[in-house]
Specification:
The protein has helices spanning 3-21, 24-45, 51-70, 74-85, 97-104, 111-123, 127-134, 138-154, 165-180, 184-200, 205-218, 244-260, 266-279, 288-301, 305-319, 321-328, 339-351, 355-368, 372-384. With 386 residues, the chain is mostly helical. Helix 11 packs antiparallel against helix 12 (244-260) and helix 12 (244-260) packs across helix 13 (266-279). The longest helix has 22 residues, at 24-45. It is globular and about 70 Å long. The mean pLDDT is 85.
Length: 386
């Protein structure tokens, strides 16, 4: 079975079933059952000519069967019976993924549950992956997702008004980040969806900024790892392998985003930072003072400790590693289990001429990361300091 194909179809299938029947929570279960059926049947019978239509049909039937079995009240039984008599769910000509995104990001849902639910339903991330993205324990995240599903269920599986654009953009950003660091299919899906949102809202500065940020970041994908899969940090990448077409479009969009908004947004500022990096033909030519100034602005619009951590790196490049290390001292509590803090401190300690302390921090970061390429890179840096 083509697992990647089935995974890519999940949001389309779920969107079609939810749009027809509602019952988001039960529909998600039905889609998962359809995937299980596909795993069992497709390798034996062959992949259907129209895999999406096959999954929609099976998921819809499983949902109707489930509701018929579980709903005892007469009115519910009559509703389910009526559904069963209808024609099968049509395969839509349009992409329901964006509709599903806005459903999951509806303001009737708690803000701390909107993004996780969308990552589960649209991107297919596991609860553990989402918990890591939000820097919270997995059980905490599982409770948020469950509460969000119950809220949708209580509203009948549908919402009359569209969801939050801000939450949708955060979802797309997190999906892209997850994909860029290890799953190219997710990165491509995030870019596709952001292009879709940009076409529907071309005048929105933050939508434009997010698309620019994704394109500029994705332009470096070919240089991020060696042929053997080893991680290559930004400063050591072969910039000749960067995609200049993506850089050109991303830079143009970043300029539009900065000039269009009445105030600078977080995605427009991050895109501007990425554009400055892209303009440097060599890492030594990077305009670090400009990047530091942009991080100062970014820190004013987002309460994100990772932004402060990145500002510490820029500060070290402009004012020396000691100044950067000083900025990291207040981040221990908020990034206690995040490997990025230990990795940055290790890098700055190495620049400051403290190899023993740098090695210990590299080893700590290697223990904390869940990424195999990152772990191998960090262990390699530690080994060089023996």
């Amino acid at each position: 079975m083509d697992t990647a194909l089935a995974r890519s179809l999940v949001p389309h299938v779920l969107g079609a079933v939810v749009r027809r029947y509602g019952h988001f929570d039960a529909a998600e279960d039905a889609v998962q059952e359809a995937l299980i059926a596909a795993h069992a049947q497709w390798p034996v019978e062959g992949t259907p000519a129209d895999p999406k239509a096959w999954l929609i049909r099976v998921a819809a039937r499983r949902l109707v069967d489930s509701l018929r079995a579980e709903q005892a009240r007469k009115r519910r039984e009559e509703t389910v019976a009526a559904w069963a008599d209808r024609e099968e769910v049509p395969v839509p000509d349009t992409d329901d993924t964006l509709t599903l995104l806005f459903l999951c990001c509806h303001p009737a849902l708690p803000r701390d549950a909107q993004v996780p639910l969308t990552l589960r339903a649209v991107a297919g991330l596991t609860t553990a992956e989402i918990a890591r993205a939000f820097l919270v324990p997995e059980p905490t995240m599982a409770k948020r997702i469950t509460r969000a599903k119950h809220r949708i269920r209580d509203h009948g599986g549908r919402f009359a008004e569209p969801g939050s654009l801000e939450a949708v953009l955060q979802v797309l950003y997190l999906v892209f980040t997850e994909g860029h660091t290890g799953r190219a299919d997710l990165a491509a899906e995030a870019i596709r969806l952001t292009e879709h949102v940009h076409r529907s809202r071309p005048a929105d500065a933050e939508v434009t900024g997010l698309l620019a940020l994704m394109l500029l970041t994705d332009s470096r994908r070919a240089a991020r790892a060696t042929a053997a899969g080893a991680l290559v940090p930004l400063a050591e990448q072969d910039r000749g392998r960067w995609d200049r077409a993506l850089i050109a479009r991303g830079t143009a969009l970043a300029e539009v985003a900065l000039t269009r908004g009445r105030v600078f947004g977080q995605y427009a500022l991050q895109a501007a930072i990425a554009a400055v990096h892209a303009e440097a033909g060599d890492a030594r030519d990077t305009d670090w003072p400009q990047i530091l100034a942009l991080y100062h602005l970014l820190e004013q619009v987002t309460d994100n400790p990772v932004v402060t951590l990145n500002r510490a790196v820029a500060t070290a490049m402009v004012h020396g590693p000691g100044a950067g290390l000083e900025l990291t001292e207040g981040l221990a509590e908020r990034l206690a289990t995040n490997h990025r803090l230990a990795a940055v401190r290790a890098h700055l300690l190495e620049l400051a001429g403290e190899p023993a302390s740098a090695r210990e921090h590299y080893l700590t970061a290697a223990r904390q990361t869940t990424s195999t390429p990152e772990r191998e890179y960090l262990l390699g840096r530690a080994a060089r300091l023996r």
